[in-house]
Amino acid sequence: MLISVVGLSIDFVVLNLTKHSSYLIYNATFRSSTLKSTVSERLMIPVAANDVAFSAHAVFVTSVILFQIAIHEPDHFVTQASFTLVSPLCMQQGSQKLSKIAIGIVFAVWLFAAVCFLVALPTHYWLWLISVFEYIRYTDIVTFHFCAIGVSF
């Protein structure tokens, strides 16, 4: 049995995990009963239960793929001294490493989300915070398309 992850972009998987995680936060929070009770009756909740299931499934599958990259290239992910998995930000697959651009994007996205959470915490702007996670998802999608265009030409 030949097991290989050669050709699978680590950058793509990590950015995809970021995108799907933000989408899961958006969907799960919008479907929560706490938010439904605080939202006006006139506001339609645009998230169905299958949206939450899809995003949870996407996060799970993307995490499994990231784990598979780690276990099928163990020489690049395991430290010789402690035999523990290295952080996904330090991943290297063959001659491929997680790029500094991808690290920067993931760090900037989650730093932005943390700052927005800290802004929303005292003011209770929860709907605004939820929309931030949707904008993160849209930004990641646009980033993917521009990267794909750049790689194609």
UniProtKB/TrEMBL annotation:
Signal peptide range: none
InterPro entries: LC_transporter
Transmembrane segments: 101-121
Keywords per UniProt: Membrane, Transmembrane, Transmembrane helix
An MF annotation (GO) of this entry: L-cystine transmembrane transporter activity
One GO CC term, this protein: vacuolar membrane
tRNA processing found in the keyword field: no
Protein name according to UniProt: Putative lysosomal cystine transporter
Organism: Rosa chinensis (China rose)
